């Protein structure tokens, strides 16, 4: 951060120890009121709130023109937006980063969701008193844990990856069909309801579904409760209470000792019996309503959130303000600017210059194009290849005529110039070729390697026959040359057969 700003001021509790060596321009303050008074840009995690140490609300401690970058959740905190606009502060909401490729590096919401999804599986494992991975031991056979993850956003995908790596059988459900491929790529089974409705909402998040879809969804979850051991719910809708997905009657189907982790507990919960911030037992099932999952991995969360904030500070440095005569200007606070032509800053700035910009600052939602199914793509490719391979009717007729003319010419030449003894030999050769071709091409592909080994015997017979023919006193004949060529080709075949056989046998050797 010091590469972008002239001076950093950090407020830390007295109990925290940090290494301040070799950090120039860093001032550490322990008085919160002094920090709010001195800084121009305040970087924090939680939205401004009432400070028990000072006895005042943090917005009241801020001064006019101050920039506060934090999670805000503007849809749920309209009073906070009004308070910040009255105080004349500028608010950059870390939860309003637009879902575009360029802004992924400062998407703190995804960072915290990833940590939370990972931690949800760890918390579930600590309360689930069985193996995740299936085990076969002298003490018995134990099946793998079955995990159902509802919601395949960033948190859900992180939970899928973690549970799968622990050896569990993972199933996932999401109202957005576009995430099916991502779920299956992680090795999980994607569950679907037999109801055509797309749940993709604004910003890539899920939207509220119809009553008919929800009814079908409830039936699916109720059936899954009979089979799974662990349920992790991650479904949230921005600006609205979390949808209820696991209802109280479904607990009758859950096995005793099962675990349910409700990651949406902070916004009302996806589970009907969830108690915010508490771990309870309901009908023998452990229900975790934890709201601090990312905080339970403080070191990892701090690293990721700190990186997001660093990229935010880098984003507000507008190098267009640098003088043109300077060839390579450095990125410093001198060029700090809230450029609302920058789509990232425009979407994140919810309060500015005494005005509330949200929800008008939200980027317009463009629904994703429906992705064709893999089967459809494969069928289209097969049809295209088939069309390319199939020649026209005229070309086929010409090809057939040319083939039969060639065969007739060969037959005439043989009849005119070949000796009488050649005809029986040719007949035997033709019959052997047809039979051999038919047998070889009807062999199962898995047996091609051992088949090459067996053909060594046939090639040996060919060599013996060739040696007999070239042993005649009159060696300067066509028969002798053909026999020599047969010996050469058969020798190559034998050498290749032995090489393949050797490689095949090595597969069965133990080091």
From TrEMBL:
Matching NCBIfam families: pntA, PRK09424.1
Highest taxon of source: Eukaryota
Enzyme class, UniProt record, top EC level: translocase
Cellular location(s): Cell inner membrane
InterPro entries, alphabetized: AlaDH/PNT_N, AlaDH/PNT_NAD(H)-bd, NAD(P)-bd_dom_sf, NADP_transhyd_a, NADP_transhyd_a_C
Main subcellular location of this protein, as a coarse class: membrane
Entry protein name: proton-translocating NAD(P)(+) transhydrogenase
Positions of the Alanine dehydrogenase/pyridine nucleotide transhydrogenase NAD(H)-binding domain: 125-289
Bilayer topology annotation: Multi-pass membrane protein
GO cellular component, as recorded: plasma membrane
GO biological process: NADPH regeneration
Gene3D superfamilies the UniProt entry points to: NAD(P)-binding Rossmann-like Domain
Record's keyword terms, sorted: Cell inner membrane, Cell membrane, Membrane, NAD, NADP, Nucleotide-binding, Translocase, Transmembrane, Transmembrane helix
Domain Alanine dehydrogenase/pyridine nucleotide transhydrogenase N-terminal intervals: 2-116
Organism expressing this protein natively: Anaeramoeba flamelloides
Transmembrane stretches, start-end: 401-419, 425-444, 451-470, 482-501
Signal peptide: none
Entry EC number(s): 7.1.1.1
Recorded GO MF terms: NADP binding; proton-translocating NAD(P)+ transhydrogenase activity
Reactions catalysed: NAD(+) + NADPH + H(+)(in) = NADH + NADP(+) + H(+)(out)
């Amino acid at each position: 951060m010091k590469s972008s700003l002239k001076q950093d001021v950090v407020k830390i509790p007295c109990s925290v120890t940090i290494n301040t060596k070799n950090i120039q321009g860093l001032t550490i303050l322990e008085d919160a009121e002094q920090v709010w008074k001195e800084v121009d840009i305040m970087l924090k995690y939680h939205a401004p709130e009432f400070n028990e140490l000072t006895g005042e609300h943090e917005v009241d401690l801020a001064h006019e023109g101050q920039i506060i970058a934090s999670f805000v959740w503007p849809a749920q905190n309209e009073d906070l937006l009004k308070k910040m606009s009255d105080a004349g502060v500028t608010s950059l909401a870390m939860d309003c980063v637009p879902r575009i490729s360029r802004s992924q590096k400062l998407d703190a919401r995804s960072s915290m969701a990833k940590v939370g999804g990972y931690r949800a599986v760890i918390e579930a494992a600590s309360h689930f008193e069985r193996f995740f991975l299936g085990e076969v031991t002298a003490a018995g056979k134990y099946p793998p844990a079955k995990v159902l993850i509802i919601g395949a956003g960033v948190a859900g995908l992180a939970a899928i990856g973690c549970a799968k790596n622990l050896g569990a059988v993972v199933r996932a459900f999401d109202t957005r069909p576009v995430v099916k491929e991502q779920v299956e790529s992680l090795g999980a089974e994607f569950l679907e309801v037999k109801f055509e409705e797309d749940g993709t909402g604004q910003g890539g998040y899920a939207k509220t579904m119809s009553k008919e879809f929800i009814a079908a969804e409830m039936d699916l979850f109720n059936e899954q409760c009979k089979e799974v051991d662990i349920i992790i719910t991650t479904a949230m809708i921005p600006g609205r209470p979390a949808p209820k997905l696991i209802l109280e009657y479904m607990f009758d189907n859950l096995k005793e000792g099962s675990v349910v982790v409700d990651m949406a507990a902070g916004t009302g919960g996806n589970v009907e019996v969830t108690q915010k911030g508490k771990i309870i037992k309901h009908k023998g099932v452990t229900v975790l309503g934890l709201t601090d999952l990312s905080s339970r991995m403080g070191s990892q969360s701090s690293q990721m959130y700190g990186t997001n904030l660093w990229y935010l500070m880098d984003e507000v440095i507008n190098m267009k303000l640098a003088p043109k005569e300077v060839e390579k200007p450095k990125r410093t606070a001198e060029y700090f600017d809230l450029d609302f032509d920058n789509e990232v800053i425009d979407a994140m700035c919810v309060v500015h210059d005494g005005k509330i910009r949200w929800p008008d600052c939200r980027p317009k939602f463009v629904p994703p194009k429906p992705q064709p199914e893999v089967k459809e793509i494969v069928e289209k490719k097969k049809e295209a290849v088939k069309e390319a391979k199939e020649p026209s009717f005229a070309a086929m007729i010409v090809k057939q005529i040319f083939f039969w003319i060639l065969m007739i010419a060969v037959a005439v030449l043989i009849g005119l110039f070949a000796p009488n003894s050649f005809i029986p030999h040719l007949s035997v050769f033709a019959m052997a070729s047809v039979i051999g071709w038919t047998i070889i091409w009807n062999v199962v592909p898995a047996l091609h390697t051992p088949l090459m080994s067996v053909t060594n015997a046939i090639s040996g017979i060919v060599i013996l026959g060739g040696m007999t023919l070239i042993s005649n006193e009159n060696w300067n004949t066509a028969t002798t040359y053909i026999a020599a060529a047969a010996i050469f080709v058969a020798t190559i075949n034998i050498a290749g057969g032995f090489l393949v056989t050797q490689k095949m046998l090595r597969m069965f050797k133990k080091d």
